[in-house]
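Me: Here is a favour to ask of a fellow structure person. Could you put it straight underneath, so I can go through it closely?

Assistant:
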Amino acid sequence: MISLILNLIWLVFGGIVMFLGWMVAGVLMVISIIGIPWARSAFTIGVYALWPFGRTAVDRSRLSGQQDLGTGPMGTVGNILWFLVAGWWLALGHLGSAIACAVTIIGLPLAWAHLKLAVISLAPIGKTVIDADQADRLPPG
């Protein structure tokens, strides 16, 4: 119930704006054609940015127990390119939203969520979003 309330407050105070930022980044990646591999991550994290409470982003390799294209060396290269093209812009948006939310006590959980998303914005390739309960059951790593 608390996650629902926080998610609804989140939508009003920055969630929709940052979701739209992620969607614009994803659409631009698709339009460029060479950016299609990055679009998947943009859309995945964008939906997470719309409704973050009760869910978390984890490395796909931690979830599946094996490496894939996005979690290996190519994922690292992809994250570097992502950072240069779109990552730092989205991270700045989340950072600005976090500062605005941190002005009030009720906004502190929202600010914390924006800060977590700012970190993810820098390197989203190889991440997936799962329920927080499921993440608690994953082995450490």
